[in-house]
Amino acid sequence: MSAVFDPSTYTQQLDAKVARLRELLAPFAAPEPAVFDSPREHYRLRAEFRLWRENEQRFYAMFAPGEKYTPILIEDFPIASQQINDLMPRLKAAWQASSALSFKLFQVEFLTTLAGDAMITLCYHRPLDEHWEAAAQQLASDLGVSIIGRSKGKRVVIGRDYAVEELQIAGRTFRYRQPEGAFTQPNGAVNQKMLNWAYEALGEREDDLLELYCGNGNFTLPLATRVRKVLATEISKTSVNAALHNLDDNAVDNVRLVRLSAEELTEALNEVRPFRRLEGIDLKSYQFASVFVDPPRAGMDPDTCELTRRFDNILYISCNPETLAANIAQLHDTHRIERCALFDQFPYTHHMESGVLLVRR
Q1: Where exactly are the structural domains of the chain?
Q2: Taking the model in full, what pTM does it have?
Q3: CATH class of 7-40+187-360
Q4: 319 catalytic per annotation
């Protein structure tokens, strides 16, 4: 847990982030950012704890950065969802009462959703046997959750290996599978605000959208309803499979998804080389006017950044405002910032999520 968690300071820390974003975007004559705040507590839908053994008992524990041997023992976790806080003592009581569950258990991961679904991953330094599986079956039933057991080279699933989320965007409910071990937005309330902002920023269009780094389809589903069709790319196989399920579950049928990195797609669009994974997809049939990007913290590499320059509209969600500013600097001669926003996904930390809509000059 962040050592500076203090709801009374929330407005002050958010104001500091807004000032920082204004400073970074000032060289590009950015408009005033829209600001989307977070719940002050119980906002984080996932949490991961090491377990610390003391007096023959195991406790939830976290460690300060760089510190391995001085645990912070945790009974509750106010930044995590109320559901995680409700499950923590019940899970602890279960492992204390069962050696099959507690023996060589070293890590616990919770994933919850705004829709009320929950999945718990239990990680072990030992093989999982039929005694563990019987105890885990009972635990899953008692807690009303899915349980994933992990040990070296083995994964046992009790229930589902994903949690189900439902998000409200522009009056429509979108349903998402969130796989165990795959990236999901941690702050569900702010994610919902972010999706609605992106939906409005893109607008209703009659041409096509290219999406890079689509993940499990978090943005793909609502944005696909704004355009004629979408070509989306993602390199993670787990995320691609989840996105395909999510498209099907929501009856979104105007998206083609390919497992390519942004760099590989750049080569394909520039006709540098063909890709077998693009067989059956006629790139020339797309009328791309907009591109949506949500890159990792390193931002877009220079070649991908140059690729986005060919689009009239660049909708960019960033988890690192410094690399966002660097990418905008590369594009500033051809594109201007029409909209920008700050999404406080990570309260009480220096991290911030931001978004810009760049349009051709």
Answers
A1: 7-40+187-360, 46-163
A2: 0.94
A3: alpha beta
A4: yes
